[in-house]
Amino acid sequence: MPTERSGKPTFVPPDTTTALPKLPFHFSAKGLEEAARVLSAGPAGVFRALLHDQESESTLLVARQVLEAFLTRGRELAAKSPEAGTPSRDFAAAVAALVERARDELATELDGLDELAATGPDVRTAVLRQRGVLGLLAGCWLDVVSQPATQPAVVVNRLFAQHFALRGAGDPRRSARYRRARVLEDAGAALPDVAAADFLERAQARDLTILLGCFPLALAVLPANFLPEVVGVHYAFHALGVDDRLLGTPPPLPESELRDLLAEYARLADGEERDRLVAAVVLTLALEREHVAMLGQLAEFRKTQPLESKVAEIFARHAPLAGRQHGRIRVGRLPLVDIFDGFGRVAGRVDETALAEFLAEFRESPYLKARRDGDCRFLAAIRFGGPMFGIFSAGEAGILAEWAARVQAGERPDIALPPNTAGDDRARYWREAIAAARPADVVVSEEEPADHRELFYRLVNIENFANTLSLAAERAEKCFQDAEILFEHGAGGRYTDASFFEYSPDALYHRAERIYWEKLVDPYEPLTEIPDVDEVLFRQNTYHLTYLIDGAWLHRLGRLGRQERESDSMLFAIYADEMGNGDVRKNHLTLTRRALASMGIHLPHIRTAEFMDQDELPDDLYGFALQQLCLCLFPDRFHNEILGYNLAIEMFGSGEMRLHEIQKLRHHGFDDCYEQAHLTIDNFSAGHAKQAADIIVAYLDRVRRTSGDGAIAEEWRRIWRGYASFAYFLEQPMLKELAERQAAGPVRETTAELVL
Questions:
Q1: Are the C-beta atoms of residues 555 and 575 closer than 8 Å to each other?
Q2: Distance from the Cα of residue 547 to its chain's centroid
Q3: Measured at the alpha carbon of residue 449, what is the angle toward residues 443 and 451, in degrees to the nearest 5?
Q4: C-alpha angle with apex 587: 584 to 592, nearest 5 degrees?
Q5: Whole-prediction pTM value?
Q6: Distance of alpha carbon 281 from alpha carbon 284, whole angstroms
Q7: Backbone phi, then psi, for 650, in 5-degree steps?
Q8: Could you tell me the sign of the dihedral formed by the alpha carbons of 41, 45, 47, 50, in that order?
Q9: Would the pLDDT of 617 be above 90?
Q10: What pLDDT is stored for residue 1 in this prediction?
């Protein structure tokens, strides 16, 4: 093997982590109160919190409680199943056989479901739309599995490679989720984006569907702590392929690739970790059986549902939104508005007695009586040109037309409104299980970190220190505010120009190109004298802490429900490049470890408590890394600032500083792989630096098209202060000179500690 300081690639043992050390989950008392409120909001409230509010401390606690309920059940099922015992030989084949048996068992039920769905388009639509809720969540457990606490583990990179493939290699139109949504649309079961406020309502999602959806959403919030479970769920869900079977689509991931991942995990994991994976597999198979059984119940209900019941559902769905414009409309003796108000709601359900009475009255009203042209006032009202056009969907309008025709033909069946109870028993079980879950590893703590090292440790392990989120947000915001001093004085920067300017695409590209040439490229001259080895090592050590979290500023931007903007997919593509697109050899964190090893520097992983005691990187270097870790935790709140920060950090990868470091490293025989990779990938021709500018333009173009030109100014100001926040650390010598020239007042307190 090459030796250290040889100038050749240095051998670095791969990161064989398969599960993170078990740590308590720290929450504040306020976080506990907020989590209790979310959990009391019912299945839909929990689902929406896990999906939409991933920056709140309470959401992490909700996720922990949901996982406790589900994973406890998984362990119970695995303990009762002799087939689920961890095999001593060919682990992957044994787990695959377990899934294959479940697939064979489900085949009969799915065939029966096909037969039921064939009895009517509304039956098939109801089944596909219901299943679509879970199908469109598929893979969300991989959204943040790649993070500072888990990279560059071999298994994590294998997972990320498959995540990259599921995401269409950065093209959302080629993603598995997009293709699945198109198939649902073609089948007449279109659903809005999962982030849409009415997603669950449009899907007419049953409580069991919603609760089962909470499990993958919770796993997506805490993937680092449940890595064995992520692997198990990922394999079982995709290998079982319920959605592919229902939709008639090819599997998004070949089973052979899934099996290879399973085998790799088994080779590296210990017995307890394999047991956790198997329990997750058994649980996933059980949950899929539960949902397929519920789909059968739903299909049977839709098949046998009386027409009057379907009409009643339609009126019940729309009645709460009926406005006062119906004040002059009477059905029977009462105004329609009073009738709708009288429906009331008990436990979220419309008063069925009042609803049935209304339908009986409406059947006899003049609004359904046939006119000479064969039409009736009600149907005319809901067609194009009528006062109720657009209220009912095409499917609903068809049901209402069929009902009106039967009423006009003299049919007066008893109005029976059989309840839809599909999945109710299992939903009740899961509601109670989640409510009763009490994770033993939850700790209530208000203690703040003692120093920057402990804060760094907490931020890397943020899943276990959700009580630090508010501190991280405050710290990031303060830095953004402090950095605005460069709006006025930034032109004097050595490597940046954060002086503010009015935005236009041309102005941004002009500024970026000017910085590239005048600040980064043109000043370059090869060094005529190379510093001694100690000085080179010291200089490199000023960078290493941020190199060890490379890409972190983007790692949370690709989450479920946040992929509708062109800029989002472009940012994900940059992050994927930083992580080697799943190839651990090209992962920038692997390159960092190679470079460090060539210098004789061997550090514990940044997620470990031991890293707090390392003595290679001194305390005054933490500020820059802390800001990056703080801002990345809030991809919604600080989305604009991250766009600007991304531009700054990607541009800094090019030019004089990088070329000088390469020259010095090569002179002393150190591995320059990390510096070389960024010099090429961050180029301003087509690389990350140019892409970062393109992303800002794409984002602001969307703002202009959706909100108008007037909305751009504030959005742009926030983006540029993100750029300035990077420059704020990089240009500390200039800022110190500026402070010394200021005649009045002491230098204000700042968040910057790094001097380059």
A1: yes
A2: 24
A3: 160
A4: 115
A5: 0.92
A6: 5
A7: -75, -35
A8: negative
A9: no
A10: 33
172's tokens? 């959302």
Half-sphere exposure of 426 (CA within 13 A, CB side): 22
Angle at 250 between CA 246 and CA 252, to 5 degrees: 105
pLDDT value of residue 371 = 87
Say how far apart CA 732 and CA 276 lie, in whole Å: 49
Partner residues linked to 190 by β-bridges = none
Neighbours of 665 (CB within 10 A): 24
**Residue 612 host element (H or E):** none
Q: How far is residue 194's CA from residue 200's CA, in Å, rounded to a whole number?
A: 8
Say how far apart CA 214 and CA 63 lie, in whole Å: 8
Q: What is the mean pLDDT of the chain?
A: 91
DSSP string, 389-439: TTSS-HHHHHHHHHHHHHHHTT-----------TTHHHHHHHHHHHHH---
Residue 426 contacts residue 208 (beta carbons within 8 Å):
yes
Identify whether the C-beta of residue 629 lies closer than 8 Å to the C-beta of residue 622: no
DSSP conformation letters of 342-385: HH-EETTEE-HHHHHHHHHHHHTSTTSS--TTS--HHHHHHSTT
Q: And the tokens for 127?
A: 């089944």
Tens-place pLDDT, residues 532-556: 999 999 888 888 999 999 999 999 9
Quote the CA–CA distance of 655 and 496 in Å, as a whole number.
12
Q: How many CA atoms lie within 13 A of 248 on its CB side?
A: 7
Q: Locate all alpha helices (DSSP H) within 550-672, ordered by sequence.
A: 566-578, 588-598, 622-632, 639-651, 656-667
CA distance 566 to 575: 15
Which residue in 210, 193, 204 sits closest to 287, CA to CA? 210
In 3-state terms, what secondary structure has residue 27? strand
d(CA 211, CA 429): 10
What is the secondary structure of 635-652 as a DSSP string?
TTTTHHHHHHHHHHHHHT
User: Using one digit for the tens of pLDDT, what is the confidence trace for 649-694?
Assistant: 999 878 888 899 999 999 999 999 998 888 888 777 778 989 999 9
Q: Residue 349: beta bridge partners?
A: 346
Q: How deeply is 404 buried, as exposed, middle or buried, from its count of CB atoms within 10 A (0-12, 13-18, 19+)?
A: buried
pLDDT tens-place string over residues 385-427? 998 888 888 888 999 999 999 999 999 998 888 889 999 999 9
d(Cα 471, Cα 620) in Å, to the nearest integer? 20
